[in-house]
Amino acid sequence: MTEFDTSRFAVIADIHGNVDALEAVLHDIADLGIESIVNLGDHLSGPMAPKATADLLMDREMKSIRGNHDRWLLETPREEMCSVDRVAIDELEPQHLEWLGALAPTLWISDEVFACHGTPTSDVTYWAEQVTPDGHIMTRAPSDIRAEAGGNNASLFLCGHSHLPRRLDLAHGCVLLNPGSVGCPAYVDDLPVRHVVETGTSAACYAVVEKKQVAWATSFRHVPYDPSRMIALAEAHDHAHWGIRLTTGRVA
Ligand SMILES: [Fe+2]
Q1: Does residue 3 form part of some domain?
Q2: What CATH number corresponds to the domain at position 113?
Q3: Ligand 1 centre from 180 Cα, in Å?
Q4: Counting CB atoms within 10 angstroms of each CB, which of 22, 79, 185, 231 has the fewest?
């Protein structure tokens, strides 16, 4: 097992079964000479290639946690699942679910780095964003964002879930980082109310983190890839509307 490099690593999240985007990102990470990867969950749920994504992830050494969709795949009866979870559960085999079941909801990567999918206490809550009653996405108040850290004294908090790449500096030199989404650049969600998230790019997104003397340096990578095979798979799984999402990063 390669020792995890806590001074320089890649952060990926929200792959959502898009194995071609994942492969593009893994190649980009390798091209940068980075071997250590943190993966923040929502790995497989999507109308594209859940099984191939699981096989690739299980074959790669990385520090992974589970997201809300990963939990739902394990906990929810099929008839109550959302459509993207149903595509995944119909394709996955016992070893894939066993792998998902072994993932922790949160993880300390080092003494200084804490990883979660949504917030430290919830995998369905956006850490940095809030949804207004009329469905608009806004940045949360700084005090609310800081409060989510609770008593955790990390200097770098990693979160995913909103698919929106961003860095926010919290109090005392502490950083909150969302690397964006590898495989799902736009979506519609009904919780807490119906809202649309659009990154506006088809590129697969992730982040690189480097420990500098004064603080954490972070950079976002937008990796272009050809989504046509994933779009064809989405169409074959009765999710043709994902075509525009994967092509433009918008829902319409
Ligand atoms: Fe999520």
Answers
A1: no
A2: 3.60.21.10
A3: 11
A4: 79
